[in-house]
Structures are given as structure tokens and as C-alpha cells.
Design goal:
This protein has about 350 residues and is an alpha/beta fold. Helices cover about 45% and strands about 10% of the residues. The chain contains twelve helices and six strands.
């Protein structure tokens, strides 16, 4: 019975877990963003609603300072479950960012998109600029920047997609030219939005934060073992409700039986009817990412949590060189363990 089930209260993370996904096009993209700042009026920073703290990249705080910022929390529909709790959470998040303006958005909801559009429309009207308003959208990989741009363009000027999107990070590799999202007037040329590549942080000191980012799709699914990621997802689901996977298995803290049951039910089987564990793990992860295995926030949203995050960033974020060194050491440790296991 569910009443007898006791979920894990702590997830045992491994020291060998990769702690970075900072790629070449992330670094070059960030450098290009800096060079464009002089021509940008407003920064639109996207963060994932499911990980409001973990999807905060301190590189943007340091590199893009000096420009007014609009913070848009994307994928609100995937982290929302109870209206009262959502409103309390969003009020705390607004307090975090004051005096910057904060919006919460589901890019498939036209009302949300219109609310996002209203801010640059009013900003442009108040700026009295003849050349219009130029905005730049930034954020971690796969937080929904390009999807937001396409939704703003569709609602703002009635035109189709201008940016490619995908389920995996890294679809946008280069900074594009400005895309018009609001038509001009006699006094102004309109509003243009510049899309940019997602930029990961050089090093993630907290292993669980890396798991959260991977679960939300900010790193490619090949970086962390799908079974480990599915195990972390199971841990989080159990804290919400084991009923979310009741059609596949009774409540459990063991990911392997659940993945075996999923494989049987969905036909993810290898020769001889052996369950394909990795394929089943990826299936569960993708289902959660689309809201079919619960819609919940992974971060603790409190004033104290923000202070701890800021302290962590100020004391633990190493240089690019240190991050590279730590990543090499982690890879060497994993390789050593694999050799010992095979020997």
C-alpha cells in the first residue's frame, strides 16, 4: 500500500558526476554578447520555471551588467500544479529580482506571450528612440529562448518561426541578426529581438544542481547516464506522489524494477525480451519534460535558498581553468573505475 511506502529523503550523488557542460560555442557566444551590449537597450534573460535558482547563470550577472533586464521564467506550465502555492512562489521570485521586472510564461499561452510583448512595447514608447528598440535574449541552454522568440514574433507581427528549436540543447550555435517582434510606428522603427546561444556555467559545484539541469534538458542526454537521471527523477516524483507512475509499478525507491515494467508496457525490449533499461529511462525523462509524469518545481524557493545560492556562487565558482581541470579529473576517475570493473 502507498501508506506504507517511505520515499528517500536524500539522493546519493556520485563524485564522478560531470560538473560542466561549458562548450566552445558557449564561450564564443558570451564574448559576442559582450561586444553587442553597446547596441542593446534591454536584456531579456530566460530561466526555467522548474529550476528558478539552478538555471541562474552567474556569468550573465558579471558579463551583461549595466543594461536593464527583463527576467522571463519559461515553461511555467511544466512547474505549476497548485495556484495558491504558485502565487506564493512567484511573489518570492519577484522579490529576488527587484527592481528588475519579472514575468512568468508558457510560450503556448497567447495571454502569457502578450504580457511579455507588452513590456518592450511600453519600454519602446517611453524611450522615444527613432531607431526603435533592440533587445537580446540570453539564458542557459534549452530554457526556451528560441521558442519564446518565435512566439513573440507570431503574436507581435503575425509571422512564422525565425529561430530553430529542439528537444536537446545546442540548436542555436551563433548569435543571429535582430528579428522584428513589434511593428514600427511613425515615431519608431519597432522592436527587434536578437537570439543567442544558450550559455552553461563553467563549473557546477553542487552535484544535485547538475542533475536538475540535466533533467530539465540543459545538457545533452549523453552526458549523464540515463538510468542515473531516471533514478533522480524517481526520487523527486516519490516526494510529490508515487501515484504518478502507478500504471507501471507499485511505489518503489528502486529504479530498475520500474524501468523494467516500463519496458514491458511500452515495448522497449531487446532480443529475447530483455528490457532496454536505457531506452526506458530516456522515455520516462522525456515524458516528465513534457508534463506527463508530474508538473513540479525542483528548487526550494525561499529567501534563505537565494542567499545560500549567492554565497555558493561567490565562494565556489572557480575560474575556467579550474573548471577544465576538475572536469578532466572527473573523467579520469570514471575511466579508472570502468577499467577496474572490466578487469
Amino acid at each position: 500500500m502507498v501508506s506504507q511506502f517511505i520515499p528517500r529523503v536524500v539522493f546519493p550523488t556520485l563524485d564522478s558526476l560531470p560538473r560542466s557542460y561549458f562548450l566552445g560555442h558557449h564561450k564564443s557566444g558570451l564574448s559576442k554578447m559582450k561586444t553587442l551590449l553597446s547596441s542593446i537597450d534591454l536584456i531579456v534573460e530566460c530561466r526555467d520555471y522548474r529550476v528558478p535558482l539552478t538555471s541562474r547563470n552567474p556569468l550573465f550577472e558579471a558579463s551583461l551588467a549595466g543594461r536593464e533586464r527583463l527576467i522571463v521564467y519559461t515553461k511555467r506550465d511544466l512547474g505549476s500544479n497548485q495556484k495558491k502555492t504558485d502565487l506564493q512562489r512567484e511573489q518570492i521570485i519577484r522579490q529576488w529580482h527587484a527592481p528588475s521586472h519579472v514575468l512568468f510564461s508558457d510560450h503556448k499561452d497567447r495571454r502569457d506571450v502578450r504580457r511579455v510583448l507588452q513590456y518592450p512595447r511600453e519600454y519602446a514608447a517611453n524611450s522615444m528612440s527613432l531607431i526603435g528598440l533592440r533587445m537580446m535574449v540570453v539564458g542557459m541552454p534549452n530554457v526556451g529562448k528560441s521558442s519564446l522568440l518565435n512566439a513573440l514574433r507570431s503574436q507581435g507581427v503575425g509571422k512564422g518561426k525565425a529561430a530553430f528549436t529542439g528537444a536537446q540543447p545546442g540548436v542555436t550555435r551563433k548569435i543571429a541578426t535582430g528579428v522584428k517582434i513589434i511593428e514600427g510606428t511613425d515615431e519608431s522603427e519597432g522592436v527587434y529581438l536578437v537570439d543567442t546561444p544558450g550559455v552553461f556555467m563553467p563549473y557546477v559545484p553542487d552535484a544535485e544542481a547538475m542533475l536538475k539541469l540535466a533533467l530539465c534538458g540543459s545538457v545533452k542526454d549523453t552526458i549523464i547516464s540515463p538510468t542515473m537521471l531516471a533514478d533522480y527523477l524517481l526520487y523527486r516524483i516519490n516526494l510529490v506522489s508515487p501515484d504518478l507512475y502507478a500504471e507501471y509499478h507499485m511505489p518503489t525507491n528502486d529504479i530498475i524494477p520500474l524501468l523494467g515494467a516500463v519496458a514491458e508496457k511500452t515495448g522497449r525490449l531487446q532480443k529475447g525480451g530483455v528490457p532496454d533499461i536505457d531506452a526506458s529511462a530516456l522515455w520516462i525523462i522525456q515524458r516528465w519534460r513534457t508534463g506527463h509524469f508530474g508538473r513540479f518545481v525542483l528548487d526550494e524557493v525561499t529567501g534563505g535558498a537565494l542567499e545560500r545560492k549567492k554565497h555558493e556562487e561567490s565562494t565556489m565558482v572557480p575560474s575556467f581553468h579550474q573548471a577544465k581541470k576538475a572536469d578532466k579529473e572527473a573523467k579520469r576517475a570514471r575511466s579508472k573505475r570502468q577499467n577496474m570493473a572490466s578487469g
